Batch of 3 targets.
Target 1
Amino acid sequence: MDAAGNLYGATVGGGSTGDGVVFKLTRSTTGWKESVIHIFTGGSDGLYPYGNPILDGSGNVCGTTLDGGGGTTNSCAQGCGVVYELTPGKGGSYTETILTRFGNGAKGGGPLAGFAHRLERHATRHADGRRSTTAP
């Protein structure tokens, strides 16, 4: 839940591509209103979001996908999942950033759950205008 009381979730299927969505529920006078904030394409951006997304300290929505992310391995035809971050922009839009891709090797693959705790990301703006982030 964010500071305004909105709830966030993901569906493992559905959306215009059938590959899953991340949604936001906003309370209204007549109940809850759902808005889709990201539709997964099944390619490099991930496929089948699994587990509950979380909010970091900056209001970004973070989560995992079971498949997708690009690349091909013996067991993952479209990639073995990603960790994604959705950053809110103007007018209710969100921009996706892939934090890591799984390849089913040493890093594992096919994450079946979201994060175990709240993720805190720390952003730094460098003198030359670059932005870097770190996560504990």
Note: The mean pLDDT is 81.
Target 2
Amino acid sequence: MQNLRSHMEDSYLKYEAPAPFYKKVGFLEKNLYMGSIRNVACPCGFKSPVTVGGSMRDFLKDSRFPFYCETCGIVDVNVAKDDLYCPKCESRDVKQYGIPPISEPPLINRGYVSTRNYQADAKGHLCPACKKKTMEFTLSETCFD
């Protein structure tokens, strides 16, 4: 019995956790495991759902992040592709939420909403309805992977 306990303790001390999935596929970004559907809201009354991230099955081909399109307003752009464009009107003139001029500069660069190398704070974003930087991201409504 003592040998078995000694063997188990030695095995436990030598155990190394497997590398995280994103390191195995060559990515160093965080938040690749799960996508989420969040809401954006503005005091003017504007509300809309946005998709952030992608599923484990196809995040290498389809991973979304909110962008601003002059024509369509807030849209979910596929950031897994090199060519970023509006999925509704196919305009190439889209601007990422989270960086100026569409968003206020972040006070603490924590990335309240993030996927890959894209991130945005919770508050201070351009509302497509009233054109003021009062729109906010809410907590995740739905998560998927």
Note: Residues 28-144 form one domain.
Target 3
Amino acid sequence: MNENTGSTSRSLSVPRSQSLALRPSNLLVTRGLQDIAQFGNRARANELVKLGSTCYSEWELEKAIEYYTEAIRLDPKCTVAYDGRGDAYIAMGEYDSAIADCAEAIRLDPNYALAYLVRGQAYNWRGCAYIQTHDYDRAIADYTEVIRLNPKNVHAYRQRSWTYFRKGDYARAIADCTEAIRLDPEYARAYYNRGNAYLHIHDYDRAIADDTEVIRLNPKDAYAYNFRSRAYREAGDYDLAIADCTEAIRFDPECAPAYYNRGYAYDDKGDYDQAITDYTEAIRLDPKYASAYLNRAIAYRKAGDYDRAIAVFTEAIRLDPEYARAYYNRGNAYDDKGDYDQAIADYTEAIRLDPKYASAYYGRGYAYLKKGDRAKAESDFAEAKRLGYKP
């Protein structure tokens, strides 16, 4: 009887370790230990994020990415780590990776405004790097989302305005800058952007007013004087343009665009020697400044030095092989020399690069006319007229 009872007891028994684990109180202990471990991982992840941020601020980008990646491994829900790594990827030019990280941060926390802003920057910078793809709509969508989450985010308005500007939508660019300025009347960069948009729609008075406000906010800002000089020059006030460029150079003697724009103003005044001097200094400061080469060559051509002009146009083309204006202007110099075949070749290349380049059609037509090919000349003149060319 006792043997049977003992046998039954043994057959129904459960090992002690399993018995303890199955008790509700011990399940809670197990979960508690897991929570403690998870808490430890989160704390360590936060420390790694801080280390990543330090490396980012010191421009040690690869090391920053390593720290952020390890933080994500320890805490896959660490939105700050995804955001920080996305910022580092932007700085390295890896825009797709940045977008992916920001998208993950947003998936984890749909109200995480900073991730939208960084993702918007990634789309924007990727759009700049791959300008032919015009990848701006997604940038605008992300900035719009930032503004929805925080209607007082002046930086999002300014960055969206810059994206609109790149798309050529100057009205919306101006509207966004105006809103940023309403939110923060001391926001100099919004005045910068709005002034630039006004310049592109030839509203010179408003452009000058905005640049003047930047100067009031930052009296030693060389680039503000340089920007205002462009508006003065395009408005035909060359002396004020020259004065602003000179002031910009006083504050920043290494400001190549100020020498370039002063040279442009001297060029417009007909002082080609001084223009060439300033363009040359701009090139010394920035040897890859293709526009400075172009304008220096134009000044040489205006001064009647066609061979030197052709040499400098060729250098501009070397720096930027798709610079249609450089081919067009070199064609003009060859035409001045009477080398019509070479002029036609350059005009043709300018048209290939920019099929709507009306002046290039007109120049090629004129060269054909000089060669006695009236049919081709008339065809090019007709196309130039269709595109809006006015002699």
Note: The radius of gyration is 32 Å.
